[in-house]
Design brief:
Elements: H1 12-34, H2 50-82, E1 86-87, H3 91-116, H4 131-161, E2 166-167
Antiparallel strand pairs: 1-2
């Protein structure tokens, strides 16, 4: 006998929020801090003086606080969904939605901060003639993650529809 009763599926919004936050953390930790290729407003205020470096560091902190809020919101959505009794989830849905969120982060951040507002470029230590290529690569990377995330999420949804129910521990 097959149970066709609808059950809560994976909370896609949670995965996207986690992906947005993790994408922001990767950008801030790797590109801002470790590689020091740019800071949040380094095109407007080059970190060539102590005052400008302090301003950029403050805005980097505000940026990190925003990405932290995405992760907290994702955790909240995940917790509220997982609080149900029966779940149909797939690992692919988690991975896919993380890629969706990270890809969205790269596309939004790349278009808004790099292209429209000109706050900074991906690699400001590269020669000025090469910065556009770095920015384009960042957008392509984001679009690739978004596309891969979409495909993986769709496969995960189909997979979860046929998966056995898992009861949560009481």
């Amino acid at each position: 006998m097959v149970d066709h009763t609808p059950r809560p599926g994976f909370p896609i919004a949670a995965g996207i929020l986690f992906g947005l936050g993790l994408g922001g953390f990767f950008d801030g930790i790797v590109l801002h801090q470790l590689l020091q290729w740019h800071h949040m407003v380094s095109s407007w205020y080059p970190p060539t003086t102590i005052e400008n470096l302090q301003l950029n560091t403050t805005w980097d902190g505000i940026f990190h606080a925003g990405t932290y809020l995405f992760v907290v919101a994702g955790l909240y959505v995940l917790w509220r969904s997982a609080h149900g009794r029966h779940l149909r989830w797939s690992n692919r849905q988690l991975v896919g939605t993380l890629l969706l969120g990270w890809g969205l982060f790269n596309l939004i951040e790349g278009l808004v901060d790099h292209e429209w507002l000109g706050l900074h470029h991906v690699n400001e230590v590269a020669p000025a003639a090469q910065r556009g290529a770095w920015d384009m690569g960042f957008l392509i990377w984001g679009a690739a993650m978004l596309a891969a995330g979409w495909v993986i999420t769709r496969v995960g949804i189909r997979e979860a529809a046929h998966a056995p129910l898992r009861d949560r521990a009481v």
